[in-house]
């Protein structure tokens, strides 16, 4: 199976590259830009094109969000012309107002924000014009490297003793970029093998939490990891933010369908975050050892 993913620096692109490097059944081509032409697609001839998500479109400039939607439209045109499957990953923030119950796939987002509505329009086009598509809605992605990675920014700010402000009244399911990469490859292997289960799927981590709880847990685990390695360090504090004064806003995706159709189990975000913090601490330890050796 040959896959093409756009936006080389995106945390999901880097996660896919790591996952594919461990496999012999998948080839990955990474395109630097965020769009693809029909001629370039013809040259590469992939089985599918993957578009990584804007992780937090509600917090981005409207022009950036619109530009992403335009790039998605251009990719759709190229995929239609070359009869290539398109996989578009999108943020749960398209469900701008959330829902009191877990959100099923058939619930098409209807945001009030104009730039978010432009993303929904791009999704409507994909559904209407290309049968071989997956629209994969994700919780907030976290990873150690790449754009839209979130976790790396939290760690860097804490280590720099900077205060990290995080909403305590928005509930969602943090989602590991590594887990998404593994799931996408598994889903596409089945699709290429004839599963023919195209459409929209929700893919997010388990255990809904607020950004404040997630960030506080990262701080606690990071401190524990570092102290366990003999490093005494003062970290920045986590400060709660409130955006909704009447009730908590819930953006919890129901991921049952991806389990029923593809057998994909959601990975607990606490385990994924713990694994990433282990990796971060090991890298930090090795870097400090290299610096000590160089100075000696």
Automatic annotation (TrEMBL):
Coiled coil: none annotated. Residues 66-279 form the RmlD-like substrate binding domain. Gene3D superfamilies: NAD(P)-binding Rossmann-like Domain, UDP-galactose 4-epimerase, domain 1. This is Sugar nucleotide-binding protein.
